[in-house]
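INTERNAL AUDIT FORM
Audit reference: QA-55
Scope: verify that the stored structure record matches its stored sequence.
Auditor: D.O.
Record contents follow.
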Amino acid sequence: MLVRILGIQDDPTAIFLALVCGGLFTYFACSGLAYLVFFRWGAARFHPNEVGDPAQDRRARRWGTASIVGNAALAVPFHWLLSHGAGQLYWDVDEHGWGWLFASIALYLVVTETLVYWVHRALHGDLLYRTLHRHHHGFRVSNPWVSTAFHPLDSFAQALPHHLCAFLFPLHALVYLTMLAFVTMWAVSIHDRISWARCKLINYTGHHTLHHWYYHCNFGQFTTIWDRLAGTYRDPERYDATIPAGVLVRGQDCRERHGRTGASNAPPNDSSRRSAVLATAASSNSAINATRPSASSGSTSARSRRGSVVPMSMPARPPNRPPNATPTSAPIQGDTPDSRMNANGNIVSRPPSTAMPRPPHSAPSRARVCDTGSLPSISRR
């Protein structure tokens, strides 16, 4: 297939190099542009309280590069078989008709949505999480560079359903290639922490931001259908009040902020940004502490922006803290209990006293709502 489109030699090495070059170009172009737009040029509008962490961004890019190279190596056999007619790809629409073309797209979405959901759930099991998936969740507060920051086996496991479709039923080659490219762009969009979509059936950025923050909810790919069926769905609008301000940004807030500040998108200087983060952390932690239960209480509630009460169960015991959340720096005067300033003068968070809970399929109760524990101030750790 790639042989026909790109005119490359029909051998595994040429296919591998084509996949690596195409993957790296797509990753750095899409993620880099999104990072510049939302976290640099438009920082004042989209993420005004964000304090960058260059070390984390470099780590994300390293994992992203390793993921693309490893994925390419693992995908070569599939593309080689397809180029030799082993699959069910076709090029001429008349071969199966327009009706089947649209039906195959719907079937493609059903198959990949189902398989990706359950693969993702499996990756949150103890063994696979410790071995593979923890590297991605080491970025609890994400940005576009995190979109492809996976262990290669992790990312390939979630991409495998897309490759299988080309062997399971007749599929137009351009549909197959378009979906593979769209998955990469979708991954970038759900990691920028800006929710533009409001349709609850779409697994938009707000859902995936909650997934990174709470770890055991919203496993879907493009939709929330399987999360609703399996009891792992969490509404970002209801749980918005349970995470620090600035972690999840609504598109509506960006438009309102832009209307108040005019067309200027210049990011604040370091001093004003640190002051903004301290103010946000103080107000956020005050609100969170007000909703924490006493030592004898087993539950609490938080109010969302709409004013609805969201019940939350506190963990019976402190689980292990989030992976890679190991900032260690001395407190500063006026600092909040859950935040610290690192050597670069940036505000980072302490590891929460009670970290993210275990996934629902290994938790005592599948019906348990997202636990909050001790929430840190906004952080890029």
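Auditor finding: record pair retrieved intact. The mean pLDDT is 73.
Action required: none
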